[in-house]
Write a structure and sequence with these properties.
The chain is of the alpha+beta class and 186 residues long. It has 2 helices and 9 strands. A hairpin with a 5-residue loop joins strand 8 and strand 9. It is elongated, with a radius of gyration of 23 Å. It starts with a helix and ends with a helix. About 9% of the residues have low confidence.
Length: 186
């Protein structure tokens, strides 16, 4: 009887978390690609970020996230790459009569910037990525050739981390309930 109750608690918690994940995926609007005037620019350059599909006249929050260039720390035992990310700018703009927007953004330091526009009413999300490369400055060595344009974006999503943690908690709760049930039977 006690084992049955433990199994039911474990199954119920897994079903609860699974239903939440399915609901989140179903109700979360997937980001759509936005447009940028240039995918790779020199430091201090201004790019035009644009998108469409918003409610006409809707307020749109634009976030500019900065991921600096990968830094390998020699002699510290760190075998991987350390990437620091930070939100460097947030502002709002409005969609035009057709539900589109276009805004100019100046990007300073070398690194990768993720531009995200979120409709405050519709929840629609538009994203674009811009690389700021010092070699794209006038007179720099490679003349602005973009060799990384075909690379895939393999970054982890924060929702993946959240649901992974929820799964670990659910498994831990199941193990704890089985341990308690076995201890009471012994």
């Amino acid at each position: 009887m006690k084992k049955t109750a433990s199994a039911l608690v474990l199954a119920g918690s897994l079903a609860f978390f699974g239903a939440g994940a399915a609901n989140a995926v179903q109700n979360y609007p997937a980001p759509t690609p936005g447009g940028v005037s240039d995918a790779t620019v020199a430091p201090g350059a201004t790019v035009t970020f644009s998108g469409s599909g918003f409610i006409p006249g809707e307020a749109i929050r634009v976030d500019v996230d900065y991921d600096n260039a990968p830094v390998v720390v020699p002699g510290t035992g760190v075998n991987g790459v350390i990437i620091l990310a930070e939100l460097v700018n947030t502002f709002t703009t409005n969609a035009d009569a057709q539900g589109g927007f276009s805004t100019a953004i100046t990007l300073g330091e070398a690194g990768t910037y993720t531009l995200t526009a979120t409709g405050l009413e519709s929840g629609k999300v538009v994203t674009a990525v811009v690389s700021v490369d010092p070699s794209f400055a006038e007179g720099a060595g490679n003349g602005g050739a973009d060799n990384d344009a075909d690379l895939a974006d393999t970054g982890a999503d924060s929702a993946m981390l959240l649901w992974g943690a929820a799964g670990i908690v659910a498994v831990g709760a199941g193990v704890a309930s089985v341990a308690v049930a076995r201890r009471k039977n012994a």
